[in-house]
Amino acid sequence: MANNIFDFKRFGRYFASDFRSAVSNYWLSCTVLALSPAVAELLTGLFSLIFTGEWGSPVLAARIALAVCIGAVTLVTVPAKLYGHVTDRKSGPNFIELPVSVFEKSSSMILNAAVIVPLLTLLLFLAADGLLCLIDPGCGKALICSAGEILGTVFTQLGELPEELQGIRGILNPVSYVDDMIQLCLIFLLGAVFFKKNKIVKTIAAIIGISIVASGISSPIMMHQLSNLEGEVALEMLTTRWGWFFNNLALIDTISDTVVNLLLSLGIYFRIKTIKF
């Protein structure tokens, strides 16, 4: 194993090799997920031909729902598929003995599992959706174009909010959700290198357990604060006491997500550093 923490050339060679391995492990799943718009188009068209005698295309709502489902499946499955072998008694020791530092290994894992492979899958999915819309006029506009129009409408409606609450609009910027998607990948990557079996199921169970505990602590506090608020009193409180919070909601969300992502990355690093067989 390498002594120095980071060497750019060594990391470059290792990352390239790790990326090729990631593609080899996930290319089939990526292809199936990315081509799901074509499957949805074919199934919808066939059922429409059977029952109406005319070719039909998936409506926008169905295509959006499919995109959300495929996105969730991608973010959840990529980490375990790429690096679930780290805890395996057969292949795990080989990974640990690779002649690169723990920092380089964990950095490559995070880049591949939380950024590059999910992004490639998303781009291929959007490309397939856009291509289908070009081929089939009944499909309507591509998802990426429709999403822009929907967001524009929502922003226009939010423009009617009081000035003190205009900051809420910031959380609707799609870019502000990039760190949330990375966070989800990091959570399941930590689960992939922490749990030895049933990695995805156990990670989901851990998330549910932590959420229940957090909700049990925070809910009574929130209910006490809001119990006597209604109508104009609630609005006044939002615009005065909580006005700064809502105006800076996007910034607060970004900072908190960044802190959590750093902690998750540290957790992955120390798990790789301390893993034993």
Structure description:
This protein is mainly alpha-helical and 277 residues long. The chain is built from eleven helices and no strands. Helix 2 runs parallel beside helix 5, helix 3 packs antiparallel against helix 5 and helix 7 packs across helix 8. The two termini are 16 Å apart. The model has no long low-confidence stretch (mean pLDDT 86).
Descriptive terms for the model:
about 280 residues, mainly alpha, 11 helices
Measured between the Cα atoms of the first and last residue, the distance is 16 Å
Average of pLDDT: 86
Q: Figure out the total of helices.
A: 11
Q: Determine the fraction of residues in helical runs and give it as a percent range.
A: over 70%
Could you name the ranges where pLDDT drops below 50 across 5 or more consecutive residues?
none
Topology overview:
Blueprint: H1 8-34, H2 36-52, H3 60-83, H4 92-96, H5 102-135, H6 143-158, H7 178-194, H8 199-226, H9 231-240, H10 243-247, H11 249-274
Helix pairs in contact: 1-3, 1-5, 2-5, 3-5, 3-7, 5-7, 5-11, 7-8, 7-11
Q: Could you write a compact summary of the structure shown?
A:
The protein is mainly alpha-helical and 277 residues long. 75% of the residues lie in helices and 0% in strands.
